[in-house]
Amino acid sequence: MNRGPYSYEFVNVEDAEQDEHSLLHFTRRLLALRGQYAQVFGRGSFDLVAVENQSVLVFLREYDGKQVLVAANLSRYAQSLHLPAEERFTGLVPVELFGKSAFPPIGRAPEAGEPVEHGEPAENGDGAPERSPEPYHLVVAPHGFYWFELRSEQALLEEAERRRQVQQEEHPGALPMLEVEDGVENLLVPTMARGRGPERFEGVLPDYVSKQRWFGAKGEHVERVSVADAVRLQAEPYPVYLTILNVRLAEESIFYALPLAVSYDRPEERLEEWPRAVIAWIDGPRGRGLLHDATVRRDFWSTLFAWWKSGHRGRSLKGVYESSLADAARGAEPDEIRLLTGEQSNTAAVINGQFFVKLYRRLEQGPHPEPEMLEYLTESGFSFVPQLLGAIEFRRGRSTSYPLGLLQEALPVESDGWHYALDVAERFFDRIAGQKLPEEARLPGETNGGGFRDDPAPAWLEEVAPELLSMAHVLGVRTAEMHRRLADADAPNLHPEESTAADADALADRVRDALERTRPMIDEAAETMDLGADALPADAHWRHAHDRLERLRER
Questions:
Q1: CB 3.0–4.6 Å: which of 73, 268, 275, 497 could bond 140 by disulfide?
Q2: C-alpha distances in angstroms, 4 versus 11, 54, 228, 285, 497?
Q3: % of the chain beyond a pLDDT of 90
């Protein structure tokens, strides 16, 4: 087939390989999952389970004490079914194989005091009501299916306990001990792997990754974490690797960057200093050391900056790590490092008070909007944003790239817009505390047809908060200038997009959700503060805000 939507130009292996949601990847995951239960599906007994809904096929496969229950919807419509309350199922917990989610136990009798739906309960010989297990209810999507492993509750509790305990030798502090013959490269580089080291290392990563602040999929089950690639930045005085992790969730795989280092100097003190950053103990030719997130060490940022300045192309088994740096930063030496802890999704530091370095944690394929916009604004001479001084990315093949971080001009803390706004707002509230707002400030004024004010700020506000108005004016002007500069860009990715009615609806929905979350917070805060009724937004204010949102939808 050379033409049409299913030709090789549109449907091909290369595109499917790059799309984690493609049918190719889904089929691979399905086959890999079935391979884990190959004996059950291939050699296990086959028992049909009778259900009233004939559109759903339910059967049980069992081999060597392991049971897998399959429920397949043969209909193109969603179906409901009830598993019979058979004794062989009673008390077992269905664990869905794809997401490893545990469902409620099958056939558990209602607890005492719970209502019984089907008539009055019978009484046993002691006069107490006899509680019998109820059928187990499931809903299956159109042409959907479930694979459940049936586990006892006790087995699940024991497995959870085993996961908390390390299979390897334990060091005081409940950290696993990983033995290496040569060094940490035995755990990270496949061609230098020794024994079961990489397997054991990847076994401790899911629990570690899920507890990190930069991990974005909080609450989701991490099925597996593997080392997708690694490149060495430094060998001495301690090894430093920039690694890329492949975090496998139930529905997708996500790449995360994790710089790693092994600290051999004062490891016990380091453990107390960086408890959340430490992954495991390393035992090898150099003795015992701590394997940890390298970004907690200030000298790591010096190492990264030096590697950045060198312009070297770091080659790994999977690709190339490339860096770019402006001439303004090439002559600098990293003397003073200040770690930034405010941001959670990425990791950053300030070097010499001049350079702001950010490492992206979650990696996305293709250009990153932040360095792309900063590069254009820097080249176009726009001086009201930090100047872009460099970037680093991982390239795999000719067309696949993952931005890893950027280097830009550092701004002094006092000139940061957010902190300045907080400081001005604090002084504003201190100044108006106990004052009664003017009458004209209590109700919303008239607006134009679009719902936005045309008139200048009222005189009373200029007297109460002159700094706040001045700052808002400057920030508004600079933001408008930045957007106008971006709108003139030649790069296709920076061209403005026409907004649609759907965009207006989405914006209105987001603002309405914010209003609905904000009002209870204000009411709750007012109960703990000595405020008069006239100091709080009146119902008219809230109605006015909702009216403006409706007008936004109508534009």
A1: 73
A2: 10, 39, 36, 61, 29
A3: 23
Q: Specify the DSSP class assigned to residue 143.
A: T
* Nearest C-alpha neighbor of 75 from the set 137, 139, 147: 139
Contact criterion met (CB below 8 Å) for 85 and 134:
yes
> Rounded to the nearest 10 degrees, how much is the dihedral formed by the CA atoms of 390, 396, 401, 407?
-20
Spatial distance between the Cα atoms of 229 and 318, rounded to a whole number of angstroms: 6
Strands 253-263 and 278-284: unpaired
Q: Is the Cβ–Cβ distance between 186 and 194 less than 8 Å?
A: yes
Run of H or E including 347: strand 346-351
Of residues 426 and 172, which shows the higher confidence score?
Answer: 426
Looking from the CA of 522 toward its CB, the CA atoms found within 13 Å total 14
- Is pLDDT of 535 > 60? no
Q: What is the pLDDT of residue 341?
A: 77
Measured in degrees and rounded to the nearest 5, phi and psi for residue 106 equal -85, 140
Helix/strand/coil for 463: helix
Q: Alpha-carbon torsion 245, 247, 253, 256, what sign?
A: negative
Residue 85 tokens, joined:
């309350």
HEC assignment per residue over 95-121: EECCCCCECCCCCCCCCCCCCCCCCCC
The answer to whether 164 and 271 have CB atoms below 8 angstroms apart is no
* Rounded Cα–Cα distance for residues 175 and 169 (Å): 9
Residue pair 151/95 in contact (Cβ under 8 Å)? The answer is yes
Alpha helices in 276-368 (DSSP H): 298-310, 327-330
The C-alpha torsion from 35 through 39 and 44 to 49, rounded to 10°, is -20
Looking at this protein, which amino acid is placed at residue 191? Answer: T
Cis omega (within 30 of 0) for bond into 237 = yes
Q: What are the φ and ψ backbone dihedral angles of 183, each rounded to 5 degrees?
A: 175, -170
Q: How far apart are CA 313 and CA 332, in angstroms?
A: 20
Q: What is the DSSP letter of 457?
A: P
| Residue 440 predicted with pLDDT over 60 | no
Q: Determine which helix (DSSP H) or strand (DSSP E) holds 422, and give its type and residue range.
A: helix 417-432
Per the CB < 8 A criterion, the answer to whether 61 and 44 are in contact is yes
In three-state form (DSSP H/G/I as H, E/B as E, the rest C), the secondary structure along 350-402 is EECCCEEEEEECEECCCCCHHHHHHHHHHHCCCCCCCCEEEEEEEEECCCEEE
Residues 372, 391: Cα–Cα separation, whole Å: 10
Rg (CA), the chain: 30
Residue scoring higher pLDDT (435 or 489): 489
Phi, psi of 69, deg, nearest 5:
-105, 130
Q: Which of 523, 527, 553, 524 is nearest to 539 (CA)?
A: 523
Residue of 130 and 430 predicted with greater confidence: 430
CB 185 within 8 A of CB 291: no
